[in-house]
Structures are given as structure tokens and as C-alpha cells.
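Z., the sequence and structure:
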Amino acid sequence: MREQIRKPRRNRASDIMALYLRKTPVEAIQVTRKNSDKVLDFVGKHGQYFPSMLALRVVTPDGLTLASEGEYIVKDGDDFFVIPAEQFEAKYKKSGD
């Protein structure tokens, strides 16, 4: 007797569901050697600067994250995120440009 091979059932939700990206404005600042005061003002109580490491510790939804020189800190609502410069510049465009 020949064994039948069953095809997996398709998930009907995946047939009609699509991924949509929401483009909303965000506030951001790039970490540099010269703007640590501005960066600390931007993140407020959510950040701490370490001059010896040239890095800033930022509280993000994922926990504490180090932001190094050149990286961007993005504020989206009440949350902060650290994004490498290459990714940020590929994904975001400065308002008014």
C-alpha cells in the first residue's frame, strides 16, 4: 500500500495579511565628541555619559544600551533607541530635505 503524503495546510490569515510600514516622524541626535551636553539634554534621565569611554548609556525598551560616537539616539514616543549610523542614514531622511 502506498503512503500518502499530505500537503501542509495553508494558513488563510497569511494569505490575506501583509506587512505595512508606518512612516512617522521621530526625534534623533547623533552622538559626537562635541555634543555630549546636547545628547544628555535630549535623553534626560534616560542616559548617563561616560567621557573615558566616549559613550553614553541609554535606557531602551530592551534594557541598557551603549551609544558610541557616530551612532544615533532616536526618540519614538517615550522610548529611546540606539541605531548605528549606517542603518539610521539608510532608513531616515532629515525633515525638510
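The chain has a mean pLDDT of 80. The radius of gyration is 21 Å.

Let me know what you think.
H.
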